[in-house]
Amino acid sequence: DAKTTQPTSMDCAEGRAANLPCNHSTISGNEYVYWYRQIHSQGPQYIIHGLKNNETNEMASLIITEDRKSSTLILPHATLRDTAVYYCIVRVLNAGNMLTFGGGTRLMVKP
Amino acid sequence: KAGVTQTPRYLIKTRGQQVTLSCSPISGHRSVSWYQQTPGQGLQFLFEYFSETQRNKGNFPGRFSGRQFSNSRSEMNVSTLELGDSALYLCASSFSTSGYNEQFFGPGTRLTVL
Question: What tens digit of pLDDT does each residue of A51-88 get?
Fold first, then answer.
């Protein structure tokens, strides 16, 4: 699986959009971009995934650049409960459920 | 629908002992994966089971083993415990092993080795 690079930490004001970047410059054509988050002392939680088109669900939006070398996870209206470590993962499908986690971005949402 | 459950939630063992952790997946899910999380190494994949067969294995020594039962419940065993095995052990369940289905993680078992 391709390697990802994320900022170690970010702050965001409550109610504002949180934009979390991820670089995956060595991504292959058949690799998807996945985002998970881990709230303190809990198991990771799936957020969203995509291949090349932008994706949106009830939790977040995923914007993938045209060359697919980077992506941004957007939490449109961050709340204090969104404070967590966010992991960007690149993986192929049809290869099992193994996830390779990097260091992630620690997002702190402040009042 | 009940989520992924892991037992016990907390465990304290001493070096040299062995330990067995249990994971009950979401009803209908047949894939169970295990992860180890430590402050130094982060989240690392241990192994994945599907239909009682190990499908993938991470880079861990043979002291780490697992199995899955016909009802999809899974156990992992760590023998000859070392101090470095102190970690949060997480399991995740999914409907299939294709990777197309979302994985759901349990709350984890926190193991402390003294």
Answer: 998 999 999 999 999 999 999 999 999 999 999 999 99
C-alpha torsion sign, points B65, B42, B14, B5? negative
Per-residue exposure over B4-20, b if at least 16 CB sit within 10 Å of its own CB, e if not? bbbeeeeeebeeeeebe
Bond from prior residue into B8 cis (ω within 30 degrees of 0): yes
| Number of continuous H segments (helices) and E segments (strands) in chain B | 0, 11
Torsion A22-A28-A33-A39 (CA) sign: negative
Residues of A in contact with B58 (CB under 8 A): 98
CB atoms within 10 A of CB A84: 21
Closest by CA to B82, choosing from B67, B65, B64, B66, is B64
The shortest C-alpha distance from B111 to chain A (Å) reads: 13
* Partner A, chain B 62-81, Cβ-Cβ below 8 Å: none
B22-46 residue pLDDT tens: 999 999 999 999 999 999 999 999 9
In 3D, which of B113, B95, B109, B114 has the Cα closest to residue B34?
Answer: B109
